Structures are given as C-alpha cells and as structure tokens.
Amino acid sequence: MHRHPTPSFPLLRSSRSADRADAVPASATSTVSSPRRPALTLIAALLPLVLAACANRPVAPPDNQDAQAVAQQTVQAVESAASAVPSPATPVARVATAPEKKLDVLLEDTMNPGEKVDLDAPKTHVDLWARMRAGMAMPELDNDLVRKAEDWYSSRPDYVARMTGRGSLYLYHVVEEVEKRGMPMELALLPFVESAFRNDAQSSAKAVGMWQFMPATGRDFDLKQNIFRDDRRDVLASTKAALDYLQRLNKLFDGDWQLALAAYNWGQGNVSKAVARNQKAGLPIDYESLRMPDETRYYLPKLQAVKNIVMRPSAYGLELPAVANHPYFLSVNIDRDIDVTRAAQLAELDEETFRQFNPSMNKPVILAASSGQLLLPYDNASTFVTNLEKHRGPLASWTAWVVPRTMKPADAAKQVGMSETGLREINRIPARMLVTKGSTLLVPRTASRDQDVSEHLADNARIGFAPDVPPMRRVTLKANKGDTVASVARRHRLGTTQLAQWNRVSTKATFKPGQQIVVYVREGQTLASVEPSSTTSKSKAGSSKSGKVTKVASSAANKPAKGGAKTRSAKVAASDGKGARTVSTKTALR
C-alpha cells in the first residue's frame, strides 16, 4: 500500500518520521490522571486481588505465552472484583455545568454510538496493556532481525516513552475496533511501526497518517483528500479504513496474517507475484520464504519486537505509560463552520494539542458539512459544549470562493479584499502561477460572503494552477530540401525534442521539401524564415545563417477553428526588404 525507500537500518524510517522533541503537552494528558476516578471502596476491593495476581506472576516471564496467560488471569480477576462492588446510589455528575441535553449526547462512546461512557464501570479498571496482551493471536516470529529491532528500541528509552505516550491517546479506540472485528491484537500495535503513532507523519513516498495510507489506497477506502481535509490523518476514519484493508488482505491470502501484513507494506500485487514465483519453483510460500525488499523483510520483525516489549517491558529495561481502559477522547457534533483557533479556545486547549485530536484539517477553518464533529479529550469536550453555549458572535472568519475564470493571484486577491501575499500563503499558490477557473480558494468572510461552505463544495473542492506565461501560438512553416528536426530546431533556437514532439516524429527525422512544420511561439517572438536565402547559394540546409526572419504578431480578427483553437493571421516581416508575407497561426491550448 505504501512503499518507502529502503532504510539502511530496519527501524530508522520510524525514527525519521517521529523521533523529535514532541512529547505530548501536559494539557493533553491531564485527563488520565484526573482526580475524578473510582471510589475508594472499589479500590479497596480490587487491591487484594490484584496483589494476589501479582504475587503469582514471575518477575520476568520466560516467554510471551506466559505473559499472555498472566494478562488474561489479571483481566478476569479485576473484572470479577470490580463487578462485585455495588454501584453508588447516586452517580457522580461528571459535568455539572453542561446543559443536560447536550451532556447526554456528549457522554456517548465515540466508538460505540448510543452507549454511555461510565468511568465507574468494571471494565474501565482493567489496564489497557493487559487487555492487549490477552488478545495477541498471531504466530511468533523469532530470528536475528527481531533481536536487532529489540536492541534498537531498548537502547532508545526516551524514543519509546514519546512513542507510547502518543499512542496512549488513541490506543483505546484502536483496541476497541480490533476487538470488535475479532482480529489479532498485534494489529493495534501496527501504528507504532508505521508512524510511531504520529498522525501527521508523511513518508517520502507520500504515505500519510498514523496508518501511512498512500493517496490512491486512501481514496479506495473512502478517505477524503482535498484542499480542506485529509482523512488519512483522521484517527477514527483512518483506523477503520486500515482495518478494512487488512481484513481484505487477510482474506486474499487465505487467513495468513503475516502475508497480509507484508502486502500492507509492499502491495498485494507484489506479494501475490512473490507467492506465485515460489509456488512455481516448488518452494514454501510463508513470509520468511518469500523474496522481498529489505523494508518488507524487516517489517514483521519490527512488529514482533514491539509486541515483545509490550508483553514484557521490564525484560528490556523499559516502562510503558498507564493507559485507562475507557475513551480518552469523545466526539462533539458541530453544525456551524468554526475556526481552528476559536474551537481550541472554546475547548480551553492550546492549538497544538487541539490539532493532535483533529489532525485531518488542512485549513484554519473546520467545515461542519465536511466532518461534522470534533474530537476532544473527555474533560475538554464538556468544557467546549459549555463555552459554545455561552459564545456570542461569529465562529468562522473564513469561507470558500470558487474562482469564476482563470486569474492572476493579484487580481483574485483584489476581488476578495485581501493582500496577494495573504491569498498565496493561505491557499499555497506557487510563484508564477495563475489560478484556473473553477478552483476553490479560502477567503475572508464578508457581509456579502458569509455563508457556511456547502457539503458538495466541502467534499469536492479542488485548486488548479497554470503557468503565468504569455499565450503560445501555433505557427505552420514549410520545410526546405534537406531540412531535419535538428537543423530546423537549431535555426529557430528551439529544443530538438520539443520540435519532434510537436510534429510527432523522432528527433533524427528528416522533413520532405514543402512539408509543413509546426512550431509554437509566443506573441512577438522572432523566427528565422525556413525559405532559403536568395542572396547566398552557399548556405546549407540547417545553417543558422538564414536569409529571413519571421516575427509573429497576432491580428485582431480571430475565428474559432476546429478543436477549439483560434486561427489568426500574422504579418511576417522579411529581412530581405521585399515586404511582408502572411503566416497562418493558431492559438495553442494552454
């Protein structure tokens, strides 16, 4: 799905895309340690059983099977103990200030619509890592590449801490989706390998998001990509699409998850061909027996190394952050366009943290018709709802404008009332480019242009550019005896390859005498005449010492010609002083 340049070391790609000073801001992690958590009576009931389970657990389990068995026992014990504790007679009000109707909607689980979030429910007291360990189901891989990957991670504890810290924001939602589909829990670890759980990661091959979707594959799985948003970076949408794709690959390769993962990295066509080659040669067709690029060869060992670390972190001298077994963020519906800065202010989050939960936005405005929802940490979601109810005044300062004709950016900026520099920056218009007709630009709202962006435009907005150069004209000339593509190109100071393409011949072709030669020139451009000079009999075909020059100047009389081009009459000034002649020209399509 998303091929990347083969790294010199199996784990360096993830390092390049994610190993920066990007620890999660304190405001983004405050919910996990919120004081509003289970009652003391529940903790008292849980503590003896948890300690008993720990007492029977080896300090360093000898293998993943033992670690998985311990995890399953711990999960069962904690759930059993938690369910034995009676619920309080009066539930704790999580958000007293939010309107009751809004609060009911707000407290729904994003992954399970209609299901209320109850932070006192028994299942919320299970450590999410233990839940993940209990669900591992893929065959173990044990080779030198796995050891190499383990060494790489274990020698970089700071990197692992940042990576797992980011992952803790989204892991619950990935685990829920994997578990609902009955898929092996190892797949929930795949974003650690793909992107180190960075939803803004982008590879040199243009794979984007924490699941690293290529543009075409993303579109195949209904991940919208336009000037307003890129759903490959959306946490929920990309997770659904990735697991849909993995299920398809698993079915294609007869339930072999290792081959499915190889296809996810290398492409299903490439893996199918590798399998066919081995079958034809009478060789095994398992993952380790196929011939494949180094990156794909290292792909599963990296995933196995991450799995081993999750199963037994202490064996590698590492620690994993505590991750609660309940939604870290909730979705909040919006029915009006809203600026990113305004939404972050209403949620009482800094903009960087806000974008961690809403990374698919390409512009400084969020369109209600496009996404229709925001993702926010649990406590900040209720804050947003409360502040939105109190807010008075506009929510969005930007809207969309469709360019009525091909325009210079300066002209477009003048028409919408902003500076050319501002228009170029907000819409990423390159230098020396025109904006083509039908393009959608983000522009300031005004009294006459203050409507929210329509659903059709939000989903189909595009922007196109054309070079800002003088228009080209099609000029037809006659070939002399012995004229070649090279000689004509040299005479008129044109590119040989370009001239050959215009006339659909090879660069070594020879023209017949009198044959029409097509060239494209700009208004006012001077060309040497193809007619031989009458004053010199020694000039050879192809000589740059031509006796005449042709200057193309368009006339005012234009009539449409076949194919949408326009025929023009151009006066040609001859250098021999014998007056002007007429050359037929046609407007070239831009």
UniProtKB/TrEMBL annotation:
- Looking at the record, the residues that make up the LysM domain are 475-519
What broad taxonomic lineage does this protein's source fall under?
Bacteria, Pseudomonadati, Pseudomonadota, Betaproteobacteria, Burkholderiales
Q: Entry's InterPro entries?
A: LysM (IPR018392), LysM_dom_sf (IPR036779), Lysozyme-like_dom_sf (IPR023346), Transglycosylase_SLT_dom_1 (IPR008258)
Which family does the entry's similarity section mention? Belongs to the transglycosylase Slt family.
What is the protein's given name? Lytic transglycosylase
Q: Which domain of life is it from?
A: Bacteria
Q: Note the Pfam families from the entry.
A: LysM, SLT
Listed Low complexity bias regions: 23-35, 533-557
Region Disordered, residue ranges:
1-35, 528-590
